[in-house]
Amino acid sequence: MTGAIFGTRIIAAPMAGGTSTPQFVQAVAESGGLGFLAAGYKTVEAMQAEMRELRSAGARFGMNVFVPDRAQLNPSAPAVRELEDYRQSLEPDARRYGVSLPGLRLDDDDLWQDKVDALLEDPVEFVSFTFGLPERDEVRALKRAGSAVLATVTNTAEALLAVERGADLLAVQHASAGGHSGAFLPPAGGAASPGTLTTAELLASVRAAVGVPLVAAGGIMDSAGLDAVLAAGASAAQLGTAFVRSDESGARQLHKDALASPRFTETRLTRAFTGRQARALANSFVLDHGDAPEGYPAIHHLTAPIRAAAAAAGDPERLNLWAGTGWRQASEGPVAAIMAGLLAGSALA
Q1: Is there a domain that residue 259 lies in?
Q2: Pair 181, 293 in one domain
Q3: 314 conformational bin, left if phi > 0, alpha if psi -120 to 50, beta if neither
């Protein structure tokens, strides 16, 4: 198996929450890339409907699935108390918009088994996973069904475990990536932190440890970034923030506008919105809740009414504005133009 499996050097990252719509993924495919639908936060029926839509359009695509963290779904008593305390800290935000906060929800595994079963019954070309790894028997079953399995990793230890589980391909995600981190293990002791390495350097370190094709993700916004990771041994580059402002992106206009606004001057890794580390523009909510505990998806459900109300009010200060560190380079316009710009200056793509 080589990088030629993708048929392209550019992959559009799966962006859950409405950004990676079928229209967006189709536009990526028609422009010479490969897009991934995002099953996260969707019902099985909605996931299947999006698959049917892309198949009817004749577009190649992959499907990304969230792996549930069983520890987060069965937290300790001290962890529950931390979540309750965080819920109380959100009351002023809720009052700001006149919404009520829900009680703690600790049982949401994002319909994991149902989604895996659906992908076994109706296989797609590529299935990618983030937040963890499926079990070996699940990986074997997906491969028998005809899917190539791609695991998201953030360090060498995760990469080795993913290959041991049977993953065909790895998406190596650098800490500069926008949105949620796919990390599920701490960095290996004594190893350099991914935060001290460039995306290309992290990719190279993983490449030295495993023999499967790699996809580089994190902070890639232009042809220079693309060529850097390809030269480091990536079979392809996965971009998310670079496409958020595109015409076909399903991101809220408020989010698209924020990426171009001089109001925001930095991104930060934060647990404030979902209880899982994610990189976002540093708005007031991020700054006000820097002490948010770990607790995904419980905190995601707690903040959902606040985020929805902020969006309805046109207020970017309480909205999760996911963005990678290169967000200032994100441009508006059709996906085709963004893809052409990435390829125009590339010597390797």
Answers
A1: no
A2: no
A3: left
64, 33: one domain: yes
Burial of 136 (0-12, 13-18, 19+ CB in 10 A): exposed
* Under-70 pLDDT residues of the chain: 1-3, 187-195
Residues 275/297, Cβ–Cβ less than 8 Å? yes
Q: Are residues 121 and 192 in the same domain?
A: yes
Q: Tell me, what's the pLDDT at 196? A: 81
Same domain flag for 160 and 232: yes
Q: Are 306 and 223 part of one and the same domain?
A: no
Residues 46 and 78 in one domain: no
Q: Which range marks the domain in which residue 100 is found?
A: 69-108+265-320
Concatenating the DSSP letter of every residue in 179-209 gives EE----SPPPTTSPPGGGS-HHHHHHHHHTT
Q: What is the pLDDT of residue 192?
A: 46
Alpha-carbon distance of 229 to 203, in angstroms, equals 7
- Rounded to 5°, the CA angle 238-318-46 comes to 50
Angle at 319 between CA 317 and CA 325, to 5 degrees: 90
Residue 304, φ and ψ in degrees, nearest 5:
-55, -45
* 278-281 β-sheet, strand order: 179-180, 278-281, 267-270
Residue 209 lies inside a defined structural domain of this protein = yes
Q: Count how many domains the chain has.
A: 2
321 CB-contact burial (10 Å; exposed 0-12 / middle 13-18 / buried 19+): buried
pLDDT value of residue 1: 39
Give residue 187's pLDDT.
Answer: 62
Domain contains 297: yes
The pLDDT, as a whole number, for residue 194 is 52
Which tokens in the block code for residue 22? 């079928």
Which has the closest alpha carbon to 255: 337, 322, 330, 329?
322
Model confidence, pTM = 0.96
Which whole-number Å values give the CA distances from 258 to 75, 94, 244, 310, in the listed order?
35, 22, 11, 13
Q: Are residues 99 and 141 in the same domain?
A: no
| Residue 83, both tokens | 């979540």
Q: Are residues 176 and 301 in the same domain?
A: no
- Reading the block at residue 109, the tokens are 């595994």
